[in-house]
Amino acid sequence: MPELPWIFTRLDFRAIIDIFAVALIFFGVLWVAQGTRATQLIRGLLILIVVVVGVANIFNLTALKWLLDKALPALIISVPVVFQPELRRALEQLGHTGSWLRPPFTAAAETDLESTVEEISRAAVQLSRHRYGALIVIERETGLQDYVDRGVPLDATLTRQLLINIFYPNSPLHDGAVIVRNDRILAASCVLPLSDNVATGGQLGTRHRAAMGITEESDAIAVVVSEETGQIAVAHNGRLYRNLDPERLRKVLRTLLRLDRPERTIRRRVRLNGPPPPADGLGDNRERAPEDGARTATRAD
Ligand SMILES: Nc1ncnc2c1ncn2[C@@H]1O[C@H](COP(=O)(O)OP(=O)(O)OP(=O)(O)O)[C@@H](O)[C@H]1O
Questions:
Q1: Domain extent listing, the chain
Q2: Which residue, of 155, 204, 267, 287, has the greatest Cβ tally within 10 A?
Q3: pTM of the prediction?
Q4: ipTM of predicted assembly, 2 dp
Q5: According to CATH, what is the number of the domain 107-257?
């Protein structure tokens, strides 16, 4: 019987788990970096390391090898600094993985959110008609209290009339963002972090960059009405879904806030004795709908 290559002789159960764990870490890193500016940074870093290590070894350059020996640990230490936003988002996502264990919103909160979507959608349409600029952030699981505290506290019931009043040009609260929790406006005139997205930063104004910025740092949803064009956009997860009409705005918000969850659709249809839901609409409705509902999606990369 031919001898097994030495590598297979050392392959036991522990080694398989070891390889699997390393592969999982690499997969996780690439998955988190996918579609963000970290992709280019990782690619640049890999090209740099491969070229420099290759040149140093091929030509046996002692000084370059010494520099590599000293610089590589520093490069590794710099990773958490350079990838701070991505790491933060990854850890937050990890923290959210437990949310499937419980329903995303309680029954009371669901009613609140129904009215929140309705009021924000109607306000956005009116603001857009009048070309009043607006920025409305809906808090989800990541707390936005830091930003609330730095704004003007309101703690008022969310109504479209109040939103329109807040963003009425030159009103005392029109500058900055409104932050909403369930069916309440917590604060107005809040200053949000600006996205430093290189690809879109040059094209977008600060209102849109602030909308993208807060959704890069949290799982919040931001609705933007452009003062310049009247266009309505929704930012989520660092992406901007632009040029939404009222119907699409409502659909995107409902989907992102999980008000159109497939299970609920099924329950509602069963109650109404309607036809069963189409099989293809069940699995990925939540992920797909924002893409369907948007004409342009700008990704933060
Ligand atoms: N960091 C920030 N946080 C919250 N709101 C901000 C921030 N920066 C700017 N804004 C809001 O954006 C307004 C300026 O918008 P600007 O014209 O620069 O952006 P824009 O994306 O082009 O928006 P528009 O299409 O409405 O003109 C400010 O008056 C302020 O209300």
A1: 12-95, 107-257
A2: 204
A3: 0.65
A4: 0.96
A5: 3.40.1700.10
